[in-house]
Design a protein that fits this description.
13-stranded antiparallel sheet, globular, single chain
Length: 509
């Protein structure tokens, strides 16, 4: 008799952290500077104008500090909520929430151009080192260019846990390698679930059906064609890699031809690095395929026509100037585009503690209450120099907060240990990647009432339930639904690059 092998403990993952800034209490660097300047102003008012003036200055200072200290459960300060509301009022008053395109719209030449951040984007197609065509999307406003890859994930069904652990480890190594990729500034992974219309299945069966087949077999196949597509879904993954258009060692800006020449030899290496991550077959997306992806995202009803054209071997000849919506309207908490309604959530808190590799399975899977769903993970790879500087600063901030209290809380002590562990892992060679997540849910045929409230309520409830199973905290992107919708698409958009405030200023609050 042989002894049974000891059970292998399931591997868990965690230790992701929200970077903090040094400051007193819950104040960041700029908040602490405001406090010190305000105290000086109170003392000066007391010396020059008396007690009442000093009390007035202190009241104003207290109100400003309250906007910076008081945070909701999504870690948003009162100042952030106030600026979002003011920005929404300004956009609505100026008509920026409405979009009309086409011959009767206001777009140049009567085209159906994309709205918002992607309006000025330019699309071209080039061959890579393996001879495959790839779409190159250039964003002139931010001097970025994006290449989109399509993957067919294998999934974890009937796969050993050891193999899943290997996939996760290889995926982490691939993400870490992006920090050493020249010119790469961001990456995103979009997992989209959409209803299967069954057009491809019907084409395959009709093309391979033997006319001499028995009547019973033919009847069974025809029944399959009518019943199988009902309720089924297609899950597709896209990877968008965004590069800077700045030339190496020079200040001049590279054009699309120079970028394509640079990426032609690098794309096969990036694609081959994904082979061991469970992504299965990965290939660059062509310009026509990218046009179809964006067109269907803004107008889901166009999916049937595009699939029928593909089944018939026809080319729909979509241009980049034709993939936008004919009409769109951004609301405070939803986005109406053509014949659909969408809501986009952003992740405000990653799962606390340790989780298993399947933590996002339910969130990524199709849902019967949601017609189309996109879960987009946004990554910002950091180079070794910036990563070392960031983790050391974060460790000093955690140590300062723990030492600044005579009785630090358990959360403060745990945060200190987590910051020290992150710094130690980075010193050993681990990569550091900033990440965020967007979830977009789209419903079509919302005829319950003029605003589609019933359908949207069902979607909100479904996404909240899915977020609970994934142990993430989601919040609707209030006041910026149109921007969040475009960011969740595989277009390589980086919203922070369009912000007016510098990154150092935003991170110091």
């Amino acid at each position: 008799m042989t002894a049974a092998d000891p059970p292998v403990a399931a591997r868990t993952y965690g230790n992701w952290r929200r970077p903090g800034t040094p400051g007193l209490g819950g104040l960041g660097t700029l908040g602490t500077a405001l406090l010190l300047a305000g105290l000086i102003a109170v003392i000066a008012a007391l010396a020059l104008a008396g007690l009442l003036a000093a009390l007035g200055v202190a009241a104003v200072l207290g109100g400003l500090l309250a906007l910076l200290v008081v945070r909701d459960r999504h870690h948003r300060t009162g100042l952030q909520r106030l600026t979002a509301r003011l920005g929404w009022f300004r956009a609505r008053r100026g008509g920026a929430v409405l979009y009309r395109s086409g011959p009767l719209g206001r777009t140049p030449d009567g085209t159906f151009a994309l709205p918002g951040l992607a309006a000025a984007s330019e699309l071209s197609e080039w061959p890579d080192g393996a001879g495959r065509p790839f779409a190159l999307l250039v964003h002139p406003a931010t001097r970025h260019a994006t290449v989109v890859l399509r993957a067919e994930p294998e999934g974890a069904s009937l796969v050993d846990s050891e193999q899943v652990d290997v996939w996760v480890a290889r995926w982490g190594a691939w993400l870490a390698s992006l920090g050493r990729e020249p010119g790469l500034v961001a990456a995103s992974v979009t997992v989209e679930s959409a209803p299967d219309l069954g057009i491809g299945l019907r084409r395959e069966v009709r093309e391979h059906l033997d006319l001499r087949a028995p009547a019973a077999a033919a009847a069974m196949l025809h029944e399959v064609l009518e019943t199988y597509p009902a309720g089924t879904a297609v899950v597709t993954a896209y990877l968008a890699l965004t590069f800077s258009t700045a030339g190496r060692g020079a200040t001049r800006r590279r054009g699309a031809r120079d970028l394509a020449a640079d990426l032609r030899g690098r794309l096969p290496g990036l694609v081959s690095g994904l082979a061991a991550t469970g992504a299965a077959a990965v290939r660059p997306l062509s310009a026509r395929e990218l046009c179809e992806v964006v067109r269907v995202a803004y107008d889901p009803d166009a999916a049937a026509a595009l699939e029928e054209a593909a089944a018939a071997g026809e080319d729909p000849r979509l241009r980049w100037s034709d993939v936008g919506p004919s009409a769109a309207q951004a609301g405070w908490g939803c986005y109406r585009h053509d014949g659909a309604l969408s809501i986009t959530w952003s992740m405000s808190e990653a799962p606390r503690g340790e989780v298993f590799s399947s933590v996002l399975s339910d969130l990524l899977a199709p849902h019967p209450e949601i017609d189309r769903k996109r879960v987009t993970l946004l990554y910002r790879p950091l180079d070794a120099a910036r990563a070392a500087r960031l983790v050391e600063q974060d460790k000093r901030t955690a140590d300062f907060r723990a030492a600044g209290s005579s009785r630090p809380t358990s959360r403060v002590l745990l945060d200190q240990r987590a910051a020290a562990l992150t710094a130690e892992e980075e010193a050993r060679g681990a990569g550091l990647v900033g990440f965020a997540m967007l979830v977009t849910a789209t419903v079509t045929g919302t005829d319950d009432d003029e605003d589609g409230r019933t359908a949207l309520d069902a979607v909100r409830s479904a996404v909240e339930d899915l977020a609970a199973t994934a142990r993430v905290l989601l919040r609707p992107v209030y006041g910026s639904q149109d921007t969040a919708f475009a960011t969740a698409l595989p277009l390589g958009l980086i919203p922070s690059a369009h912000a007016r405030l510098p990154r150092e200023f935003r991170e110091a609050w």
